[in-house]
Amino acid sequence: QVQLVESGGRLVQAGGSLRLSCAASGRTISNYGMGWFRRAPGKEREFVASYNSITTGAYYTEPVRGRFTISANNAKTTLYLQMTTLKPEDTAVYYCAACRKSWCGQRSLDYDYWGQGTQVTVSS
Asked: Which residues lie closer than 8 Å to 23 by C-beta, 6 or more apart?
């Protein structure tokens, strides 16, 4: 089993930056694909970014492209989401997820493991 624990969420002013972390434990997940999703108040959970554990390639949803960066440490035990130029519409609970393939893509149903989420609130 894999456990994912997010951290780093907090209240930040618009235009600010924040880095989220997702610590993975349990089985070795160095070859697992990982991603970030978010759920804004009153909305469905949506894809934010995905990370290929083999190529270290990444893909982003258009609203965050150029502002957010997904990465992992060398051991692939911690996933990061560096967020810059934050906007009030980025306010959401952010979830880390992993799948048993090197690349998971954008669909939440393709992910096998989920964290509990961390709240990010961006004030205007």
From this structure: 4, 5, 7, 77, 78
Mean of per-residue pLDDT scores for the chain: 95
List, for residues 55-97, the tens digit of each pLDDT value: 999 999 999 999 999 999 988 889 999 999 999 999 999 999 9
Q: Residue type at 117?
A: G
Provide the 10 A C-beta neighbour count for residue 113: 19
Q: How far is CA 78 from the centre of its chain?
A: 11
The structure tokens 């992993």 sit at 98
Q: Does residue 25 carry a pLDDT above 90? A: no
Alpha-carbon distance of 27 to 60, in angstroms, equals: 26
Q: Is 113 left (phi over 0), alpha (psi -120 to 50) or beta?
A: beta
The Cα-based distances of 43 to 28, 46, 56, 90 in angstroms read 33, 9, 30, 12
Residue 109: φ, ψ to 5°? -70, -15
